[in-house]
């Protein structure tokens, strides 16, 4: 478990950098994608800690996010997961890095009616354990809409994922959807909530693994989960967030995070 001290060192480094650089706050606190692009040359960096508990066991992940505004319309988001731990009640445990996700988004229309963006996401199979990842790439396309409604900032996603199948399995592609809102309580404090769902294109449960082949996380049927949380900006130029998520099988996840946005 020597990775955890490195995580704490990285968190401290992000806080120090955030205090030293001019920042604006627009954190990646949501799983839902938004059409709020960074300006040219702006950079956002974040780190989170995710702990999930269910009747099947516990999971821990430490995701990182790095986003840059290539232009005022074009954005690049890189999301590595350097540490993942899966501790089931029964069966084999797994520890190691998770998969890497890279997303390119383009703002098609500025907001008057809803702002609209298109995005393409590539999952690069950097996980080395079959309990953590499939070992195959996934390819996702999104349509994203965002609209300010008074003190509410609402976001809608529709996506389609071409799922890579590991040897011995035939996984179905997935349709995804997400709806999120952020409510500005004060200039420094925001409440947020979101609902995300996905289903295999064939419906029902995902394709079962053949005997002797490893189980894949993507080999599931319908999934839906909801999150509520709060985010608060500090004078040091740092945004702290804390969210709680529950999914359709009763798993509970808590997710504290820290995000910096600087030029």
Protein architecture, described:
The chain has one helix spanning 3-20, and strands spanning 43-48, 50-54, 57-62, 64-69, 74-79, 83-88, 94-96, 100-109, 115-124, 138-149, 152-162, 174-184, 189-200, 223-233, 239-247, 252-262. The chain is mainly beta and 263 residues long. It has one domain: monomeric porin ompg (Porin, Beta Barrel), CATH 2.40.160. It has a twelve-stranded antiparallel β-barrel with strand order 1-4-5-8-9-10-11-12-13-14-15-16. A hairpin with a 5-residue loop joins strand 8 and strand 9 (115-124). The longest helix is centred in the N-terminal third of the chain and has 18 residues, at 3-20. The chain starts with a helix and ends with a strand.
Looking at this protein, list some descriptive labels.
mainly beta, Porin, twelve-stranded antiparallel beta barrel, 1 helix, globular
What order do the helices and strands come in, and which of them pair?
Layout (H helix, E strand, L loop, with lengths): L2 H18 L22 E6 L1 E5 L2 E6 L1 E6 L4 E6 L3 E6 L5 E3 L3 E10 L5 E10 L13 E12 L2 E11 L11 E11 L4 E12 L22 E11 L5 E9 L4 E11 L1
Antiparallel strand pairs: 1-4, 1-16, 2-3, 2-16, 3-6, 4-5, 5-8, 6-7, 8-9, 9-10, 10-11, 11-12, 12-13, 13-14, 14-15, 15-16
- Number of separate structural domains: 1
What is the topology, as strand order, of the major beta sheet? 1-4-5-8-9-10-11-12-13-14-15-16
Q: What is the oligomer described by this structure?
A: single chain
Query: CATH superfamily assignment?
Result: monomeric porin ompg
* Percentage of residues assigned to helices: under 10%
Order of helices and strands: HEEEEEEEEEEEEEEEE
If you average the pLDDT, what whole number results? 86
Shape-level CATH architecture: Beta Barrel
Give me the CATH fold name. Answer: Porin
What would CATH call the class? Mainly Beta
Summarize the biggest pleated sheet.
Answer: 12 strands, antiparallel, barrel
User: Radius of gyration, rounded?
Assistant: 18 Å
- What structural class results from the helix and strand content? mainly beta
Strand content: over 45%
Q: Compute the number of helices.
A: 1
* Unreliable residue stretches: 1-5, 10-27, 209-217
